[in-house]
């Protein structure tokens, strides 16, 4: 009688984990002093001239519990486009 041949199949699991982290974050924290036209009269903090009136109002309210004109008397409001 013939013998049996057992075939063994070897299973290999290959896992290729590629972490494609190609995210380059460019943060420009530098602000030109010349671009700062708005300065808080209370804490002397400077803001970009493009800062919205809303943000300035929040600063005045949250930081000093004051109104916007009290902190930024020279602020003319949001510049029209
Ligand atoms: Zn302030």
TrEMBL record:
<protein>
    <submittedName>
        <fullName>At2g23090 like protein</fullName>
    </submittedName>
</protein>
<dbReference type="InterPro" id="IPR039438">
    <property type="entry name" value="At2g23090-like_Znf"/>
</dbReference>
<dbReference type="Pfam" id="PF04419">
    <property type="entry name" value="SERF-like_N"/>
</dbReference>
<feature type="region of interest" description="Disordered">
    <location>
        <begin position="60"/>
        <end position="81"/>
    </location>
</feature>
<feature type="region of interest" description="Disordered">
    <location>
        <begin position="1"/>
        <end position="30"/>
    </location>
</feature>
<feature type="domain" description="Small EDRK-rich factor-like N-terminal">
    <location>
        <begin position="3"/>
        <end position="36"/>
    </location>
</feature>
<dbReference type="InterPro" id="IPR026939">
    <property type="entry name" value="ZNF706/At2g23090_sf"/>
</dbReference>
<dbReference type="Pfam" id="PF12907">
    <property type="entry name" value="zf-met2"/>
</dbReference>
<dbReference type="InterPro" id="IPR039713">
    <property type="entry name" value="At2g23090-like"/>
</dbReference>
<dbReference type="InterPro" id="IPR007513">
    <property type="entry name" value="SERF-like_N"/>
</dbReference>
<feature type="domain" description="At2g23090-like zinc-binding">
    <location>
        <begin position="39"/>
        <end position="74"/>
    </location>
</feature>
